[in-house]
Amino acid sequence: MILYVDADACPVKDEVIRVGERHRSEILLVCDGGLMRPRSPWARLVIVEGKLDAADDWIAERIGPGDICITADIPLADRCLKAGARAIDPRGKAFTPDTIGSAVATRNLMTDLRETGVITSGAKPFSQKDRSAFLNGLEALIQQVKRGR
């Protein structure tokens, strides 16, 4: 099991490293630069250069069954699920084949509403409650992968 982190704007990198170390899982923090190297022997920083979605493409090309992607990017989560992997957002919401379609549709609707000026605000601020929900969600997802579900 490899934990792939869409790391550029991920607010739970430290939590992923802590959980990954406990489970002795390789952790790949994928970004376009600007992050410090993790101090964990289980974690590696992967810097990708190129177009806007280069980190997403790098993850989607390598992830597979038994792996987990941590991302708030719904299209990337969709690509990971299609590759047989699991995906979870930084607020602890696991994406599944049953829920990803509505998540993509909602994302597209919200993008359209923002572009037309109907909605001008983004996501609510990240809280300690979100961090706790993420830790619980990631632990549950790792346990599911380990049990082969």
The fold-level CATH name is Rossmann fold
The percentage of residues in β strands lies in: 15-25%
- What is the annotated CATH architecture? 3-Layer(aba) Sandwich
The beta-strand count equals 6
Helix content: 40-55%
Strand order of the largest sheet: 3-2-1-4-5-6
Helical region count?
5
User: Structural class, from helix and strand content?
Assistant: alpha/beta
For the record, what CATH class applies? Alpha Beta
Q: Give unreliable regions as ranges.
A: none
* Biggest sheet overview: 6 strands, mixed
Alpha carbon gyration radius: 15 Å
Tell me the number of structural domains.
1
Could you tell me how far the N terminus lies from the C terminus, measured between alpha carbons in angstroms? 13 Å
What is the overall pLDDT average? 91
Order of helices and strands: EHEEHEHEEHH
Structural shape: globular
What layout of secondary structure does this protein have?
Layout (H helix, E strand, L loop, with lengths): L1 E5 L6 H10 L3 E6 L11 E5 L6 H9 L5 E3 L3 H9 L3 E3 L5 E2 L4 H16 L12 H19 L3
Parallel strand pairs: 1-2, 1-4, 2-3, 4-5
Antiparallel strand pairs: 5-6
Helix pairs in contact: 3-4
